[in-house]
Amino acid sequence: MGQLRPWTLGLSLNWEDSKAIYLQIADYLRQEIQKGRLLPNTALPGSRSLAEQLQVNRKTVVEAYEQLLAEGWLESRHKSGTYVSPQLPQKRADQGRVTRKAAASRSSVAATTVSPKLPVIAVSDGIPDVRLAPLDELSRAYRRIFNQKPLAIDGVQQ
Q1: Considering 40, 74, 107, 142, which has the largest number of Cβ atoms within 10 A of its Cβ?
Q2: Could you tell me which residues come within 8 angstroms of residue 56 by beta carbon, excluding any fewer than 6 positions away?
Q3: Domains in the chain, ordered, with CATH?
């Protein structure tokens, strides 16, 4: 079966850059949308075909798409694919990104005062940023657990 959405991405990934590859892909797609080269409702290539084209792991492309979905630049349509959102965000490209420092200092509930009488409470949507997980510590904990000998129950070794 041929590719349904023939698409060539004019992106050269910089493997030496400190910026993650998925962010380079997301930044490039966001810029193409902002420049009007990718119009609202444009179908993007599937993650497998784009990953093959860029010679990266499919999960890298999925991460880039998820970043842009979270920022509102893309939308996912059930059984149809990923598209440029018909309602593009009106914010700067880098505002949607969460850094470790910003996420750590941000509270899920922030109260501000609009006027002396009317306090406004902003509540986050509650979706955690999985990139903030302490992966090294989790892997050490899992490794330690899996390397333990099984416990004996009623004198029988498991």
Answers
A1: 74
A2: 13, 21, 25
A3: 1-97 (1.10.10.10), 100-149 (no CATH)
